[in-house]
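@channel sequence for tomorrow's demo:
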Amino acid sequence: MIAVPNVLSKSGINRLSRQVYFVLFSAIMCPLPTYAESAEPYKSLNRFGDVMDAVRDQHVDEIDDSAVIDNAIKGALQQLGTDTAYMSIAGLEEMLRANKQGIGPGGIIGIEFGVSEAHNELMVSRTMHGTPAYVAGLRHGDIVSHIDLRSTVGMSAEQAQNLLHGEPSTQVVLSIRRQFPFDLTLKRAASSFDPREIEVIDNCIYIRPTSFDETLIDWLTAGIAETRSTIDNPRGYVLDLRDNPGGLMTTVADFADAFLDKGEIVVSRGREEDDVERFRATPGDILRGEKLVVIVNEGTASGAEVVASSLQHYERATVVGARTRGYGTLHTIIPVGSGSGALRLATARLFSPSGASLDKTGVTPDEEVLLSQNGDNQLRRAIEIARGRTNQ
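structure tokens (generated this afternoon):
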């Protein structure tokens, strides 16, 4: 059992107000408009009240008012896209815990979900490196139609995660639809492992962060120092951002800053003309100017795209792989309902140092290398470039 703090207490609100997340992981406090400021749209809520009264009074079964209202809110937000959602307090606590490099109690499978707009079913957004889902080969875009024979039609990502969690070494059966349907039985892994990697490959230092959480900068600094002590004169560095979904805005900016000496890293622009925030690099390159290659793919999203685009723009790194996903929006977590839930809402778009929007465009690599069926050719090519071989 884990004691979960009340994130909407005074201390919890202060903590949330200091945390800004990219896409699925951004959190700051925003004031909601008052009724007087925009009364007209709320008049239509009278119809919802009439429906609730009729259901409560006349439905053959007694209903749970809270569950009906939560589901109504979630349904209303679906038209804004899969990155906008209403979360329960439990879902919010789970997200905050994940951004502290803790995945939660019990065993894990390692899937993050989106929703297929075509079928209203759950879709694999990404798999966490080293987890059972990753090892089994699940990938972005796979449809998860059933979890232990339970249909995912209309199921929220939070509900699905609750089904996936369980005791380590227990099994869960996923029904997957790709080109053809198949069932996959996965064994839950203990949640205490760290999927991030820093190691030596072919005399190059390989760095793979899996997301941008609060512990990442300390991990990067200590990991590079320790790995350097095991190798004389590394030929270069490879930063692997494949299937990386981003994370905390401040961590993303600090991570890019670690490899840059100066320049603008990213600009976020909200709906209002003066709603602009700029993040700039400061002097000091952790690699002291040594050769750096970044690997990206269609699973590289949000904050990871910001890192890749800034390093590419200033020619600090060569980017190889496949075009990134194009999730260039900043999301804000807004506590609502007197502590009963929270709203995840897109509040700004992200722009690269060149001024180009990252939203729906992503990052085009300097050298396109599509993943083959014969091993990791993207990593092989990155190491070749890091070692000084520029021609394929």
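heads up for whoever presents: The mean pLDDT is 82.
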